[in-house]
Amino acid sequence: MPLIALTGGIASGKSTIARRLAEHGAVIVDADQIVREVQAPGSPVLKLIAETFGSSVIDGDGALDRAALGAKVFGDPEMLGHLNAIVHPAVREESQRRFDAALAAAADAVVVYDVPLLVEARADDPWDLIVVAHAPAAERLRRLIELRGMEEKAAQERIDAQVSDERRLAIADVVIDTAGTLGQTHEQTDALWERIRTR
């Protein structure tokens, strides 16, 4: 079972690549989805977050108020570090459970771990291939503002909170340039799939 890490900065087109690989038959394990699940109301992770960052990060329904938490951690490396120390171990455990389940279901499954914080949290794991979705920071900033409706300052803080493009590209086995058209991104992703299947 090939285990492939797919990473990239915010708004780098990572989800587009993951969707295309899923169309080819890859099993996608989405780190962001796992994060949301391990932080669900009543979870030990959410309890720790509330204890660490205060009750103001919990909304009236007992769920995580992402905007309130984001305001506390983005732009503050120490606070972000505290958050990651709470969340990353739980995400690692759940993602491994899903990798194992995919392998149990089909020994020849291609599993793609869609993970924004690979460099920060899991660069040294035994991946068969590390794929980096890459678009220049200025283009990613434009996407966050125009496509996601973020304020420029908030968008820039999100980009700055992640590792540099240089550090991400340094660990890449494959780089998919997502700065062009959707068709060009799909072509590169299709070529990647052929490479994976013929390994």
Describe the SSE topology.
Elements: E1 3-8, H1 14-24, E2 27-30, H2 31-38, H3 44-53, H4 66-73, H5 77-105, E3 111-114, H6 118-121, E4 129-134, H7 137-146, H8 152-161, H9 165-170, E5 174-177, H10 182-197
Parallel strand pairs: 1-3, 1-4, 2-3, 4-5
Summarize the entry for a quick read.
This protein is of the alpha/beta class and 199 residues long.
Detailed description of the structure:
- There is one protein chain.
- The protein is of the alpha/beta class and 199 residues long.
- The protein has a domain at 3-34 and 94-197: P-loop containing nucleotide triphosphate hydrolases (Rossmann fold).
- It is built from ten helices and five strands.
- It has a five-stranded parallel β-sheet with strand order 2-3-1-4-5, sandwiched between helices.
- Helix 2 (31-38) packs across helix 5 and helix 7 (137-146) crosses helix 8.
- The longest helix is centred in the middle third of the chain and has 29 residues, at 77-105.
- The radius of gyration is 17 Å and the shape is globular.
- The termini are close together.
Give the proportion of residues in helices: 55-70%
| Molecular shape | globular
Secondary-structure-based class equals alpha/beta
CATH superfamily of the domain at 3-34 and 94-197: P-loop containing nucleotide triphosphate hydrolases
Number of DSSP helical runs: 10
Tell me which CATH architecture of the domain at 3-34 and 94-197 applies here: 3-Layer(aba) Sandwich
Strand order of the largest sheet: 2-3-1-4-5
Distance between the termini: 11 Å
